[in-house]
Design brief:
152 residues; 68% helix; General transcription factor II-I repeat domain-containing protein 2
Length: 152
């Protein structure tokens, strides 16, 4: 029978709190991207403030790798997003971007998803490198067993 150390509940987050930042960011991105007028106004706003980025990325559930990129872009544009919604008198849409506790959770998720993306890309590259190495070894083996006149 296992016992948990005292105060182990400190290390456990309720699922609702754990999923709050990703769901809120997806909702925020969908608010900007789903309405054509709002999306055009947001892009124009980013141009007018001479932002480094011209748009916010779109999140899709099919490509889960996009989550890290979307979170990173929203993190970098968070001040511009807040300014945009304040200008439109829709500050309720982005009130979480002004909450420091929520921002720390969001920063954690952004780092987590970016590291997961980097790790996934690294493993994909390793797999590709392994397959190329295997293919080259197979070709060199086939080359050895060819008669001399067929090699050239």
């Amino acid at each position: 029978k296992f016992r948990l150390p005292p105060r182990s509940e400190m290390f456990c987050l309720p699922v609702g709190k754990f999923l709050a930042p990703p769901l809120a960011v997806v909702k925020l991105v969908n608010t900007i991207r789903s309405r054509g007028l709002t999306h055009r106004q947001f892009r124009d706003f980013l141009q007018s403030v001479q932002s480094e980025y011209s748009d916010v990325l779109y999140y899709t559930k099919v490509r889960w790798l996009s989550a890290g990129c979307v979170f990173e872009r929203v993190w970098q544009l968070k001040d511009d997003i807040v300014s945009f919604f304040h200008e439109k008198q829709c500050s309720a849409e982005c009130e979480m971007l002004e909450d420091t506790e929520w921002l720390s959770d969001f920063a954690f998720f952004t780092d987590l998803f970016c590291h997961m993306n980097n790790l996934t890309y690294y493993f994909v590259q390793l797999r590709i490198a392994y397959k190329v190495k295997k293919l080259l070894a197979k070709q060199s083996l086939q080359f050895r067993f060819l008669p001399r006149r067929e090699r050239s």
